[in-house]
Amino acid sequence: MPAVSSSDKVLSYEKVAESVKRAQYAVRGEIYLAASERIKKGEKVIFTNVGNPHGLGQKPLTFPRQVMALLTAPFLLDDPRTATMFPADAITRAKTYLANIKGGVGAYSDSVGNPYIRDEVAQFIQARDGHAADPERIFLTNGASEAVRTLLRTLIRGHMDGVMVPVPQYPLYSASIALYDGCFVGYELDESTGWGLDLVKTKASLDAARARGLCVRGLVFINPGNPTGQCLSRADVEALVRFCFDNRLVLMADEVYQENVYRSRHPFTSAKKVMCELGEPYTSGLELVSFHTVSKGVYGECGLRGGYMEMCNFDPRTVEEIYKICSINLSPNVPGQVAVGLMCNPPRRGDPSFDSFMAEKAELLASLKRRARLLTDAFNSLEGVSCQETEGALYSFPQITLPPAAVAAARAAGKAPDVFYCLALLSETGLSTVPGSGFGQAEGTFHFRTTILPAEADMGEVVELFKRFHKGFVQRYSGPVAKL
């Protein structure tokens, strides 16, 4: 029997769903793949392309891992030596979880998560905002990304349904909207004001989309911002709440970096808190879903894939449909759920682990603040580079001015200029970043995103590598544009 040719395969590339082909995810795109090839060759790579704290050397917080160690090896609770190796509150917490998680961490849970942990999340939200949260409207998920995709899958009915997303944006949104055959409607942030919100442009974007016949159904905002690192003021959040209510949009509040705030100018304020404090008709009329995760903050537990979403003011029948979607996956992973519970319900004052836990968190946040400052200052010290303040999150998003010869060389190579720049940066230094075109950027501008996550002891080397590369790159292409 003759071999089946590639084009005759049932799932040849030509027969792959068009929505899958349209979906692009730059964070693990061309630069990441090139970096992976370097690793295979034994060459050094510093992965600053993704917010993966433990992957860049951050140590896990002690207390959560102590509890999880006991949960994953519950026989340790019967060992008399455990009392000398683990603090009493970690032992107590592990026993409490085991009493409330039928079958332990190796068993399926409810499709929307363990009720005890959902109650911990509800109490966390109430303590944060001063307003009650309903555990029945809290869904635990495999990371916040799964929650986002679940909501978008429910919101988008077809190619004429649009979702508004800030530009620059985290490509989870553009990729998922494409995958579900929806329409991406960007609203541009203003780089000149520190990536601030411009409601005039936002409204113009909405009006233009609706004028094209799109049914715009939702709006996403990311606070603190990814990739931009800005923190929205309370007034900005209030403006978005009003905007979504007035224009009949579901508000999707991506608040996964709420603990990563490095300046006091704009402390984090949740959309839920603002909605409740505005009173009626917003309190009962705005359809709001907010997302959080244990992958960010100071926990950085990306591999555990723990997250949640809270839904406010949704039709109960819609909630049942979302429950059905979650049921198709049986249940979120239980260790990730526990990690979320520990994030929301950490040691309290008076507990044996409280002082050491708070000290670990404080040092991590202080270090992130110093690294953000160092990286911002380094970028702004270079000719042709400007970088807005990293007020929060885990990233810097500098703008680079590329010489005309570099732009021409990129075009000749069939690459976007910022991709060309990032590939050269990777080749010469081993620094893996993400081109700004993967997030969206104003026409005629070029950016890249890098994390502030390399270890503080290594950050000086990272800065020097970048400085030497950028100066050499600009010098190399500072001559006249060659005729092509």
From TrEMBL:
Q: Which cofactor does it need?
A: pyridoxal 5'-phosphate
Q: Which SUPFAM superfamilies match?
A: PLP-dependent transferases (SSF53383)
- GO molecular-function term, one example from the UniProt record: L-alanine:2-oxoglutarate aminotransferase activity
Per its UniProt record, what InterPro entries does this chain match? ALAT1/2-like (IPR045088), Aminotransferase_I/II_large (IPR004839), PyrdxlP-dep_Trfase (IPR015424), PyrdxlP-dep_Trfase_major (IPR015421), PyrdxlP-dep_Trfase_small (IPR015422)
Report domain Aminotransferase class I/classII large positions. 89-462
Which Pfam families is this protein grouped with?
Answer: Aminotran_1_2
Keyword Transferase annotated: yes
What are the record keywords, sorted? Answer: Aminotransferase, Pyridoxal phosphate, Transferase
**Keyword hit for Hydrolase:** no
GO biological process terms held by the UniProt record: L-alanine catabolic process
Q: How does it assemble?
A: Homodimer.
What family does the database annotate?
Belongs to the class-I pyridoxal-phosphate-dependent aminotransferase family. Alanine aminotransferase subfamily.
Q: What is this protein called?
A: Nicotinanamine aminotransferase A
Species, as recorded: Tribonema minus
